[in-house]
């Protein structure tokens, strides 16, 4: 039967923690994240507010185990190491943090010194993700990045010297006017530096960003989807020759260096989000915090009750949860086993999704083999469209008719 009580127990929860740091030196024109430039003076108060929220969650879930911690933003690497270290200490004091937990820091090339990186490692950070984006200075200018191509290599070396166990580089492709030759050069330059992990993102034009306004005015013409798809497929082939294994739609790693924290997102694990605008997923419930850092600080100034920071919470309907589960698991290159679906929802996937899965297999977007389901190489280019199909299909289904058929 369909399991309508698929949420796990509050006790002895095992999860990841995401810490949102909303501060940037400069907000990039393509970015629609909850980030702010020019608010650095709020950092000490913000740190205290985050610690209050963490302490509150620790009392809410006593004895719970933390398997991974990730600081994103914004640019956490531009915060003083002692402030981020105090947040890590608060997590360690409020939860049972696994001995080999992955602790990730996002940073920009050229803005985090070697001494600061060493302090981050000493504070418990094990992984760093550098927002390189491109090795072309022209492209970096277009993206409103404040670093040069030379700064990427320098920062990566500083991170190695500091002792980070894993180093990731972010790259963006599909830029207006970008050629295949330019993209090949970005990939060659990245591989020459030998990072442990690479994340490749297709530029998307998000509403309410300066880039969106430029496109709407006709000042910037986006690259065609066909060329972007060609760049993606080239990267998949190119990186495998350098020993990088693609394990997720946008992520490649050397053996043993995949992002454990992000892997938790894709496999439907619970995580707590702390900080302004942070999102969490706890016991099947989606939670969102107050977005603006000033309002967030005010809400938590005199309390450790995490409810004070929450502005939205939602327990999605079962059909939405199933669509989300499928969409996330199909981001993984290996896909998922049908038994995983049954364990989560208490019904065979064939009963709920059989006709749509058959349709997707027939048009070679999805493949099924030995009870494993994954996207084909063509399907990887159409993941967003597949996600929409899942939701539309499930919204048309009466899941109550499957009761007792599991």
Mean pLDDT: 93
Q: Specify the CATH architecture of the largest domain.
A: Alpha-Beta Barrel
CATH topology of the largest domain: TIM Barrel
Low-pLDDT parts are 1-11
**CATH class annotation of the largest domain:** Alpha Beta
Structural class: alpha/beta
Number of domains: 2
Give the termini separation: 4 Å
How much beta, percentage-wise? 15-25%
Description:
There is one protein chain. The relative contact order is 0.13. The chain is built from 15 helices and 17 strands. Helix content is 40%, strand content 22%. A hairpin with a 2-residue loop joins strand 16 (366-369) and strand 17 (372-375). Residues 1-11 have low confidence and may be disordered. It has helices spanning 43-60, 81-94, 114-122, 137-142, 149-162, 180-193, 210-216, 225-240, 260-266, 293-300, 318-329, 338-345, 349-362, 377-380, 383-395, and strands at residues 14-21, 23-24, 36-37, 65-73, 96-107, 127-133, 166-173, 197-202, 245-248, 251-253, 271-274, 279-282, 285-289, 310-314, 336-337, 366-369, 372-375. The strands form four sheets. A nine-stranded mixed β-sheet has the order 9-10-8-7-6-5-4-1-11, with helices on both faces. Strands 12-13-14 form a three-stranded antiparallel β-sheet, with no helix packed on it. By secondary structure, the chain is of the alpha/beta class. It starts with 13 loop residues before the first strand and ends in an 11-residue tail after the last helix. The protein has two domains: 14-266, TIM Barrel (Alpha-Beta Barrel); 319-402, Arc Repressor Mutant, subunit A (Orthogonal Bundle), CATH 1.10.10.920.
